[in-house]
Structures are given as structure tokens and as C-alpha cells.
Amino acid sequence: MPTQKTASRTARIRYARLPLVAAPRLVPAAGYRATLRSVLVGPSVTPRIMHSPTILVFDSGVGGLTVFREIARVRPDARYVYAADDALFPYGKIPEAELVTRVTGLMEKLIETHSPDLVVIACNTASVQVLPALRARFAIPFVGTVPAIKPACAASQSKHVSVLGTEATVAREYTHALIRSFGRGCDVTLVGSGRLAALAEAALAGEAIDDEAIRAEIAPCFVADGSERTDTIVLACTHFPLLLDRFERLAPWPVRWIDPAPAIARRVVELVGPATGKPMQPQAQAIFTSGRTASADLAAALGQFGLSAAEFAPSRAPGSFDTPAVSA
């Protein structure tokens, strides 16, 4: 088992079920701590107190709704645009160069149409692979999503932590660097699931999901080592909190589940300030790129997040799609 060193402690990494593949570093071997911080926080931006800012939340599907919900709680006075590139879901299977071209093109159209004051990339894969290009291209602040390894390892009492993510997220050097930097002496088990994001999408759309399918995906997260066992699990995909009630019910023992959404919402408040007025009406717009028709169950689920039934906009080519206004 390899040992990853930090300044004063070591964190051990276990790999559960997933054969790890080589992934390129985000930057040359210069200052990884600066790079780790930059994905979530970005370059230095002077915080402002903004009245009713426009905030764009972007994901490959409906997983970003868990992030949107937390941001809307802390800034109910903001105007929101939720954009899901579900025509290309899941992002984890898309080559990096193709994904950068795709998301940059879509973002250009979204920014031109909606003029957001801030953009949240509510997707781990897009944050790691595309954020540097987005920040180089556009002059507005971007907030990214990264696995919440630092708070998970700080909170763990048993020092046995699991990271449950997509296969792409747990395979990347970026995730390993987070563990080396913030592992705090924990044994960290990386679990890559190729099915949970799709199961979360299906569940939100009202499809029946078998408990055993979910149980099989989360089982490798639960590691017993003598008298110690896993007590904290990082949800390293924004889709996964959509299944949290099922996770809790199917878990072989109680654990702490770490969702990155509250930390993302706090970062948004750092940049645009706290709420300054009454909730904005209409509160949100929803844009989907697949062109599929929303089922009644999906429309009802969107309503629970503060969105009315979305009109789905077909994506004709990378960066080219319609953006209908959908009010809550």
C-alpha cells in the first residue's frame, strides 16, 4: 500500500474495486497547494455586496440541483439560472479536450444570454478539467466543486475515510493530491462508481431503483480494520446527495456523509455577500440541452427545488443551443 506524505502526517490511500489509470497533472510540478485551492476558490477576487445578483449554476445533469438548493438558501434574493448539459451526460466518459471545447462553448452562450455575476460549476469533473480554461476565457468569477476531503479527514474520529465519486474523479491525480495535502493521517479508501450518477438521474425522474443496485455501489466504502471502521464518507459527485436517504438506510453502519454543497454556498456568499432583500420572484430559470421531454415526475421533482417544469432546449452543436426562460 503506497504511503502519501504531507508536512507532518501521512495519509494512506486504498483503492476499492476501481483499477486506477494514469491521469495528467493539472499543472507542472509547481505548488500543488496553490492549485488545489484555485479550483474551488479561483484567483483572488475582491468580495462585493451585491443586491439581487444573477447566479448561474452549471452541471452535466440534475446533480447540481443539490448545490443550487444550498446557494438559494443563503441568497434567496438572487436571480438564478440552472443549466444542465444532459445531452452529454455523463461527463466522466468524455475526453478532456472535447469536454473543454464543449463546456467553453456552452458557457459563452449562457454568459451572453443571461449576463451572470457569478458562475458555479456544480460538477467535480468539469471543475477539475474545464475551470482553468473558463477562468482564462471569461472575466467573471467562477466557483468550482472539489471532493470535500479536508473537512472529512478533520472530522473523522476513526481516521478511516472513504471517497465515493465517479470513476473519473477518483482516478485523477488531483484527488490524490488532495489526500496527500489534507489526509491528516487517515486511511482513505477511494471508491469509483460508474452507475450511481445515472441511478440518481433516474430516481429523480421517477424511475424505480432497486435497493440492491445502490447497496452494491456503496458497499466498498465501508471498511472495517480491527476495532476501527469507516466513520466518514465524502460524496465526491453532486448527484450523490440526491440518493442520501437511500445511502443512510442501506449503510451497514451509521457514518457521517460529507456533502460539498454547503461549502460552495459559503464561498458564493464570500464573493457576492449575504442576502440583502426579499426573495426574488421569479426565482429561477432552468435550461437542459438534451431536447428530451420532462416527465411528470421530473417536473414535480424540479418543483421541490424551486423550479417549475423546465422546457428542454435541444443542443444542436457544441456551444449552440436555445435558452428558454423558465420561471419558478
Q: What's the short version?
A:
The protein has 328 residues and is an alpha/beta fold. The chain has helices at 32-41, 65-74, 96-114, 124-137, 149-155, 167-171, 173-182, 196-204, 211-218, 244-250, 261-272, 296-304; strands spanning 3-5, 10-16, 54-59, 79-84, 118-121, 142-143, 160-166, 187-193, 224-225, 228-229, 232-236, 256-258, 284-288, 315-317, 320-321.
Tell me what you see in this structure:
- The chain has two domains: 129 residues, Rossmann fold (3-Layer(aba) Sandwich); 154 residues, Rossmann fold (3-Layer(aba) Sandwich).
- α2 crosses α11 and α3 crosses α4.
- The relative contact order is 0.20.
- It has a six-stranded mixed sheet. The protein has a five-stranded parallel sheet with strand order 6-5-3-4-13. Strands 9-10 form a two-stranded antiparallel ribbon.
- By secondary structure, it is of the alpha/beta class.
- It is built from twelve helices and 15 strands.
- The longest helix has 19 residues.
- It is globular and about 55 Å long.
